[in-house]
Design goal:
This protein is an alpha/beta fold. Strands 3-2-1-4-5-7-6 form a seven-stranded mixed sheet, with helices on both faces. It is globular, with a radius of gyration of 18 Å. The termini are far apart. About 9% of the residues have low confidence.
Length: 206
Amino acid sequence: MKTSQEKHKVEGEKQLEDQTKSKASRWLWLRRSPALLDALRRLFEPPKRLIEPYVKDSQVVADLGCGSGYCTLALAELVGSEGKVYAVDLDRKCIRALEKRANKSGYRNIEVHAVSAADVSFIKDRSVDFVLANGLLCSMADNRQSAVNEIKRILKSTGQAYLSLGFGLPLGFVGQAEWEKTLEEFRVEQGGSYKEKWAVVSLRKE
């Protein structure tokens, strides 16, 4: 039977956890800004500049946590008609908005899925050349390790993944220890420090 002191401690921990999730939810909302704000974002963070060094024509890529498609259309343009983009996001409204934009722009190489990045079983093992997980892990309240495992599963042996955190704790769900542990599962090619909060990684050689 718990003492009053223990109960108070548990309640305090739960309150702190709820506050953290609330802050992270606000960050998640900001991260999924309306599509009409994308033009403003492009002035400061052009999507093509971010992904162009890693993506080539005819490749297969996965945009995990794609939101309304800020980088997805740029990816579709870079891989061309012979390539393919898997666009994955748990928010059905974002996916519908992306699908509408893709159809309006004439892209036929984007396959959208309103699911969690923790389960992308529709993507074959070792079939993806590049994974974009820009702000993905920090916005996931749970199942982050499952998402990491899926990234490792779908990446080709020659593939790369771009991982980034919008914010660390308490605005996001990923702290320094978890970030460093995640990177230990890959070979880090660029970036990697928690201060930078981004890294380009590839699979470790077996």
